[in-house]
Design brief:
The chain has about 350 residues and is mainly alpha-helical. The chain has two domains: about 120 residues, Cytochrome Bc1 Complex, Chain D, domain 2 (Orthogonal Bundle); about 160 residues, Cytochrome Bc1 Complex, Chain D, domain 2, CATH 1.10.760.10. The protein is about 45% helix and about 5% strand. The chain is built from 15 helices and four strands. The strands form two sheets. It has a two-stranded antiparallel ribbon. Strands 3-4 form a two-stranded antiparallel sheet. The radius of gyration is 28 Å and the shape is extended. It binds heme C (HEC) (2 copies). One heme C (HEC) binds next to helix 5 and helix 7.
Amino acid sequence: MDPILKQVKRLTQLIYTLMLVLIFFSGLIYYFTYYPPAFQPEQEQTTAVWLPASLSDIPANEQGKLIREGYELILNTSRHIGPLAENATRRLAGNNLSCGNCHLDAGRKIGSGSFIGVANRFPQFRGRENKQGTLEERINGCMERSMNGHVLEEDSREMKAMIAYMEWLSKDVPDEIQTLYKGYKPVRLPEVKADTSMGRQLYEAKCMVCHGNDGRGQRIAGEVFTGYVYPPLGGEDTFNDGAGMNRVITAAEFIKSNMPYGATYDAPQVTDEEAYHIAAYINTFSRPSKSDKDKDFPDRTLKPVSTPYGPWADDFTPEQHKFGPFQPIMEYYQREYDLTKSK
Ligand code: HEC
Ligand code: HEC
């Protein structure tokens, strides 16, 4: 055969082969675009589709009525059991915060001490009291500290309503979802003392529009006080110095996952370091003082390292317990007491 003709024939064959290969792969791409593989790992699927119980799922019976009351109490605490309550004997909370100001989305938001699953974790051992504590006692811990008030009677309608709401939110929650919703998400703590002047600058840039100067919050407009648009973080109408939010590590964890408003644990708006300095700054604001704090944590070794009030089972300064660095204190408890501390 003519060598030129031979070359042409080879080239044509090559082109045909290339075209076939191209058609094959286009087919594959077309197929997977329109018929994507149905296979998905089971675990991922439950996490993706799992949603907290919604209000429309509340049963239409007496128990449902109680659950709704609990939900309402969490969102408008002051109006029912606080300073704005009509019945003066029910003014048990001492400030105008709502439980839902810290337990966001009425306790249904990840990274804000969610109530989803909480009823399944009590009774549990509590270091602050050094004994087994019930869910009622835990709620009263927030009543006396975060709400700067008095305990709510355990057999009261209000307590039963809040418990009913938490139990309803905790029903049939898969284990991995309970873990996801539980407590606060840890932050990586800088190994330096928190810098309150840096915290102040960050606060002014990212928080002050809503929470105001010195964290006094923003009241709902009107001649008579009816509550807050943005709750206070400082001053006489907020959590007291015995509250968890008054510890830098706890506050940093809350801020990282929730603030500025709209932030979430998986889409935070401040870095771990920023949250740490801001937390220290807001904990320089004046606030109500809890009495008898020295009786907290009868076993002093169980006290969180960032508890800003003594007595402690160590010789670190009050300043360091308040503003860090916390790692040396944690290492001390590991070494001396074989206790691993995260807060
Ligand atoms: C100023 C913020 C704040 C307010 C207001 C507040 N809490 Fe809390 N609450 C906390 C913090 C902080 C924790 C500890 C979270 C952690 O470390 O996991 C907590 C924990 C709890 C827990 C235990 C959660 C768990 O997973 O173990 C319950 C239940 C609870 N609060 C109920 C309430 C109720 C009910 C109210 C209103 C009467 C309330 N809280 C008001 C900050 C607050
Ligand atoms: C756009 C307004 C807005 C901004 C900005 C904002 N917050 Fe908040 N913050 C809120 C609202 C609203 C709540 C109450 C949430 C609820 O009830 O759902 C809240 C709650 C809080 C709480 C718990 C309740 C309390 O009164 O103690 C803290 C602490 C807090 N914010 C700190 C911060 C910090 C620190 C920043 C800046 C990094 C910040 N916030 C930025 C609106 C804001």
